[in-house]
Design brief:
globular; Rossmann fold; 9 helices; two-stranded parallel sheet; 17% strand
Length: 244
């Protein structure tokens, strides 16, 4: 199995990659931090990956996307699965005070992902098989005052992948939208934890399983589907007065 992972140094992507490595997969890892990337690559070789190649890229450098994709295909030969997992957790208060911060969040968490999806979709469409998976978030299900800039980016991804899924279904390609809730990762290290937090290992495993079965939309852990159903059902006249 040949797997391309973008944002491979994220905790969730790393755990999902370990699952693929145990299967003896051939992996191509892309991230912007070369030192972390090499550490992850070495770890995956220990876990049993048949081959691991790395590529350093800032995903907002759109003009370099095509070269990265071609390098992955040269290394892998063909592509069975793609996981896009890069992103940043926006500081809502800083975004509220700064147009630049807001646009940077939207660019990293939505626009750069959409650009990569557009490029990859054309390859998979011609191939008529494979799986594309994107790490989104439950934050995209409804705009909340505590993180609506980040949520806006994830909502854009949810809508984009929904449309892409309908397009790609006609040629036998699955598009999986992964919606984690709270996850205990370095990105959330400064946040106070509560019982709703899941481990990166659990979410990574769930991502791996969802990709193998070609799921559509997966909430991780599963109970977030119920939580967000309730959150989305609250009338706007009430919701706008809640501190969520």
């Amino acid at each position: 199995m040949n797997v391309l992972i973008l944002g491979a140094t994220s905790a969730i992507a790393h755990e999902a990659a370990r699952c693929f490595a145990r299967d003896g997969a051939t992996l191509f890892l892309v991230a912007r931090n070369s030192a972390k990337l090499e550490t992850v690559a070495c770890d995956l070789k220990v876990y049993g990956a048949k081959q691991v190649d790395t590529y350093v890229l800032d995903f907002t450098e759109y003009e370099k996307h095509q070269a990265m994709f071609e390098a992955a295909l040269n290394a892998l030969g063909s592509l069975d699965m793609l996981l896009i997992a890069h992103g940043v957790l926006s500081d809502q208060q800083r975004c509220e005070l700064s147009v630049t911060e807001t646009l940077n969040s939207l660019e990293t968490n939505a626009i750069s992902v959409i650009a990569l999806l557009t490029l990859a979709a054309n390859y998979f469409e011609q191939q008529h098989k494979g799986c594309i998976a994107v790490i989104s978030s439950v934050a995209g299900d409804r705009g909340r005052p505590s993180n609506y800039v980040y949520g806006t980016a994830k909502a854009a991804l949810n809508a984009f992948t929904q449309g892409l899924r309908a397009r790609m279904a006609k040629c036998g390609v699955s598009v999986v939208t992964i919606k984690p809730g709270f996850v205990d990762t370095p990105m959330t290290a400064q946040q106070r934890k509560n019982p709703l937090y899941a481990s990166a290992r659990a979410v990574g495993l769930g991502t791996y399983r969802a990709m193998l079965r070609g799921a559509d939309v997966v909430y991780l852990p599963w109970f977030w589907r119920l939580i967000m159903f309730v959150v989305c059902a609250i009338p706007e006249r009430i919701f706008k007065h809640l501190s969520l």
